[in-house]
Specification:
Elements lengths: L2 H11 L6 H8 L6 H16 L6 E7 L28 H13 L4 E6 L7 H17 L3 E5 L5 H8 L1
Parallel strand pairs: 1-2, 2-3
The structure holds iron/sulfur cluster.
Length: 159
Amino acid sequence: MNDKIKTIANQSLQNEPISREDAHYLMQINSDEIYDVFYWANQIRLRYFGHSIKTCSIVSAKQGRCTEDCSFCSQSARYHTGIEEFPLIDSNNILDAAKYAEQTDSDSIGIVTSGQGIRSSRDLRSICTAIEKIAKNTHVHPHGSFGILTRETAESLVK
Ligand code: SF4
């Protein structure tokens, strides 16, 4: 058992924040010590959340057209899967997906977009509008999976 991982985990178990340096240390582990991280992550989950779960729906808000080549991803430029491709859908369609998630008792709606990140200010505005509409018209929590974000983009999304 890795003592440093254990020390960091115990901080969390005592409800103390961990430092940025310690977070980086955990993120860079790529050996079998990752199983220590899994063990302690599970202890932390049990401590704060027990066996309760939250349900989440997702909406594929932008699909295909990705120029990257992540080998695990069916939307990668390296594969020709024949999936339907479309640009970012309208914010009202994202809201409709959130309303459906609410009707089916989801706690949250995950907005997922293909691509390395949000690259156009138009798309960013549209996603922010969708998030505002979800917050105003539903009780589900909007989550996002938007690839790599710049600091400015991240700040726009949380405003
Ligand atoms: S950047 Fe995202 S959408 Fe594109 S191939 Fe990688 S994981 Fe898939």
